[in-house]
Amino acid sequence: MFFVDENRNVYLGRNAAAKLKVKNDTLFLRQGQGVMEVDTLRWKEAQRYERRTWMEGGGLYAREDRNSEHERQFENYRAIRGCYFGNVIEIGCGPFTNMVRILRHIRCKKVTLLDPLAKDYLSHPHCVYKRKRLGRWFGKKVNLIAEPVENFSTDQMFNLVVMINVLEHCFSVSNVFKRILSIMPPNGLLVFHSKLVPASEVDDFFQNIYDAGHPIRVTENVILDFLSKNYDELFRKCVPVSTPAYRFDSIYFIGRKR
Predict the structure, then answer these.
(1) Measuring CA to CA, how many Å separate 75 from each of 10, 71, 88, 100, 224?
(2) What is the pLDDT of residues 129-164, one digit of tens each?
(3) 0.90 exceeded by the pTM?
(4) Kind of pairing, strands 34-35 and 29-30?
(5) Domains of the chain (ranges plus CATH)?
(6) What ranges in the chain are assigned the alpha helix state H?
(7) Which of 22, 37, 90, 187 is most buried, most CB within 10 Å of its CB?
(8) What is each CA distance from 57 to 7, 46, 49, in whole angstroms?
(9) Tens-digit pLDDT profile for residues 17-35
(10) Nearest of 223, 210, 157 to residue 188 by alpha carbon
């Protein structure tokens, strides 16, 4: 049993079991899919958790959120190294972004960063876009948008979409996937990472675990079906991820939109 509340307090064993009787995510559970969508109250709780993670206590001293690990697992983004993109976006950029590392390997004209808490993060001591620029010296000027991807509306098309370790922080998987597809032209590239929860384990997961900061947990078939139906694979790697609460694989994927 594992329970973490929005203040990032962790409860284990019997203490967690008592908490789970009062509060859990089984209300949102869909058979064979996991939690695909949550309501506004649940998502706002997760956003409060996320803000506290980086904007209070030790989070104010952080300089990255596993961004170097993601760069390593993507093998320094070798599948897109040297490519030129007219318009790129990172969905769920956090205070540190993966884009600042990706820009070491590609060239582009325009950069957009999207995160519901982006304006909050501007006051983080180590936010990499606090000058509204990314990279060394003057860096690349960025367009900063503080809203969830599900609500993002634009006429622009993005040749490169980056979404790394973000899906479980959202509130509607189907709307996230629709939005990603709507902002990408044919032949656009997607850089994507997420955890893969086996369908056989998802029911037990939600009966035994509550994680305030991560409202969405979908089964691996939901993610793999989305990727296989819409993208030609350029890079793929599955890597085990282990926490005190669970051990699953995660997928690192780069694909070209059909």
Answers:
(1) 34, 6, 20, 16, 21
(2) 998 899 766 688 999 999 999 999 999 999 999 999
(3) yes
(4) antiparallel
(5) 2-257 (3.40.50.150)
(6) 13-22, 40-55, 67-73, 99-102, 118-121, 173-182, 202-208, 220-230
(7) 90
(8) 12, 18, 13
(9) 999 999 999 999 999 999 9
(10) 157
